[in-house]
Design goal:
about 325 residues, alpha/beta, Rossmann fold, Helicase, Ruva Protein, domain 3, Zinc Finger, Delta Prime, domain 3, 3 domains, 5-stranded parallel beta sheet, two-stranded parallel sheet, 7 strands
Length: about 325
C-alpha cells in the first residue's frame, strides 16, 4: 500500500492493530509513525497509553506484556518499537501477530533494510494489519518527488532549483524535506522556489555546483568549467573530486546511451534514461558535442583520476584540486 494512502486512512480515523514498517527509506517510516502518534490518542491519553521502546534494549516478554495490557481511561493504547532492526527476538512475536490485541496499535520501525517477507510473522502482520515496505526513491525519480512534495506544501519550484537540491542532497529525503520546510517558513505561501532562494537560504551556490559544471562541459565552455573547479578547490564543502567524478561519469554514460538510441527526441530520451524532460533536453544537446569515441576516452580518463584520487599512481605531490583541474582539462580537449 502506498504511504500516502496509509496516511490518508489514519487521518480518516481508520487505524490498524499492526503497522510493520520496514525498508531502506527511513523518511516514509518516520512520516507514517509521526501521523499515527499524532492521531491514535488524544494528548491527555498519551501519558498512560503510549509506550516507545527501542529494539536494542527491548525484551520479548516485556514487550508482549506491554502489547497485551489494557489501556487506562482510553479506548486504545499505542506501542511503538523503534530501531526494530536491532531487536533480536522478532520471531518470538509470531503468536502475538497471529492474535493481536483489539485495544493496542503496535507500530514496528524496521529501518534501513527489509525484513524477510516469507516469514510467518510477516504473513500474520499483513493479515491482521498493514505491512509497508519503504523503498528508496531512485535517482531518476528524485526530481519528480521533490516537485510533488514542494507542491503539496503550497509552493512551486523551478527545474533548476530541483536539480540543485537533487545533486547536493542526494536521495536523503529527510534532509531534503527539512531544507524545503525551512524555505516554507521563510518564503511567502505560493512562491515559486528558484535557484536564488536555494543559494541564499540553503547555501548551495547557484553558479558553482556540479550541475553547472556538467552544463559547462556539455558545451565545452572551458573557462566556466575551470572557474567552477577552482571554486571547488577553494571551497571543499561545495564538492570534492569523488563527487565530481561520479557526476561526470553519469553524464558521459547518459550521452553514450543517447548515441545508441533509435529515437533521440527529448521525450524518447527522458523515457529511456528515466530523467526529467528538462534534463533530457540538455543531454540531447550535449550528445551532439561529444561523439562515442571521445566519450569512451573520457570515461577511461575518469577511471584514471578515480584511482589517482585514492592514491593509486599519485605520489601525493598533486592535491585534490590539482587533480580536478588536470582531469577537466583532459576531458575537454
Amino acid at each position: 500500500m502506498d504511504y500516502k494512502l496509509i496516511i490518508k486512512e489514519i487521518l480518516a480515523g481508520k487505524l490498524e492493530k499492526i503497522y510493520f514498517l520496514h525498508g531502506e527509506e527511513a523518511y516514509f517510516i518516520d512520516e507514517i509513525t509521526r501521523v499515527i502518534t499524532e492521531n491514535a490518542l488524544e494528548e491527555h491519553e498519551r501519558d498512560f497509553n503510549q509506550t516507545i521502546l527501542y529494539g536494542k534494549d527491548a525484551e520479548a516478554l516485556s514487550l508482549i506484556s506491554e502489547l497485551k495490557n489494557y489501556p487506562m481511561m482510553a479506548a486504545r493504547k499505542l506501542v511503538i518499537l523503534k530501531e526494530a532492526q536491532d531487536f533480536k527476538d522478532m520471531d518470538k512475536l509470531e503468536d502475538y501477530y497471529e492474535n493481536p490485541s483489539d485495544t493496542t496499535i503496535f507500530v514496528v520501525n524496521y529501518k534501513y533494510k527489509t525484513y524477510d517477507s516469507r516469514k510467518k510473522l510477516m504473513k500474520s502482520a499483513a493479515k491482521n494489519g498493514i505491512v509497508f515496505k519503504s523503498d528508496k526513491v531512485r535517482d531518476y525519480q528524485l526530481v519528480g518527488w521533490i516537485e510533488a512534495y514542494v507542491k503539496s506544501t503550497g509552493f512551486g519550484i523551478t527545474s533548476k532549483a530541483c536539480m540543485l537540491l537533487a545533486e547536493f542532497l542526494g536521495t536523503d529525503l529527510g534532509r531534503i524535506v527539512n531544507e524545503i520546510d525551512k524555505l516554507a517558513i521563510l518564503l511567502e505561501k505560493g512562491t515559486t522556489i528558484n535557484d536564488i532562494h536555494i543559494e541564499e537560504n540553503i547555501g548551495i551556490s547557484k553558479d558553482y555546483n556540479v550541475f553547472e559544471l556538467t552544463n559547462a562541459m556539455a558545451v565545452r565552455d572551458v573557462p566556466k568549467a575551470f572557474k567552477i573547479v577552482d571554486y571547488f578547490d577553494h571551497n571543499p564543502k561545495a564538492a570534492d573530486i569523488i563527487m565530481v567524478i561520479s557526476t561526470v561519469f553519469k553524464f558521459y554514460s547518459q550521452l553514450m546511451r543517447i548515441h545508441f538510441l533509435p529515437v533521440k527526441s527529448k521525450e524518447a530520451v527522458a523515457s529511456a534514461l528515466k530523467v526529467h524532460p528538462f534534463v533530457a533536453g540538455e543531454l540531447v544537446n550535449a550528445s551532439k558535442v561529444f561523439n562515442p569515441k571521445k566519450i569512451a576516452a573520457n570515461i577511461a580518463i575518469l577511471h584514471e583520476y578515480d584511482l589517482k584520487s585514492k592514491g593509486v599512481g599519485n605520489s601525493g605531490a598533486f592535491t585534490q584540486g590539482d587533480l580536478m583541474k588536470e582531469m577537466i582539462y583532459r576531458l575537454l580537449h
